[in-house]
Amino acid sequence: MGQPTYRVGDQPAFGTVITNISSAACSRDLGAGPQFLVYTLDGQRRLWASNDCNQDDPAELKTLKAGEQLSYKGTWFGTTSQPQCAGDRLQVPAGAYMVVAQLGAVRSAAEPFNLAS
User: Which helix (H) or strand (E) holds 96?
Assistant: First the structure.
C-alpha cells in the first residue's frame, strides 16, 4: 500500500510480495501475477478487481527457489469494475475501503485505506 489516504480522483498504488516459504523450489503460474481486489471496509461488497477488464494473460510457469521473492504492483483508477468488464465503471466516493492481493486461492491480509474528498 502506497499510503493510508488518497483523494478521490487519485490513483491508489498497491503492492505485494510473493515468497516461496518452503525449503524446496516450487513452480506456479504467474502469467497474470496476483490480483488486487478493493472491497468496502466491512468486506461485504467487492468494488474492483485488477483483472476484471484485462485480457487473460498467457500462462507463465515460474520456478521460485526456496525463500525467493517476487514483487508486484498495481494501480487502481478509483472506479468500480465487474468480471469481463461488464456494466458501467462508476467513480467510488470518499470513504474507507480495503485492498486484498490474491494469487490462486491464497489471499493476503486486508489492508485498509481511505479516499478523502
Answer: strand 95-103
Q: Give the position of cell 458501467.
A: 88
pLDDT at residue 53 greater than cutoff 90: no
Matching residue, cell 526456496? 66
Region 101-108: what's the mean pLDDT? 90
Q: In the predicted model, what is the mean pLDDT of residues 26-52?
A: 91
Q: Please, which residues have CB within 8 angstroms of residue 66's CB and are 6 or more apart in sequence? A: 20, 22, 23, 24, 25
Select from 41, 51, 49 the least CA-distant residue to 110.
41
Kind of pairing between the strands at 106-107 and 13-19: unpaired
d(CA 47, CA 13) in angstroms, rounded, equals: 16
Which pLDDT value is given to residue 54? 78
What is the per-residue burial (b if ≥16 Cβ within 10 Å, else e) of 54-65?
Answer: eeeeeeeeeebe
pTM over 0.85: yes
- State how far the Cα of 10 lies from the Cα of 110, in Å rounded to an integer: 20
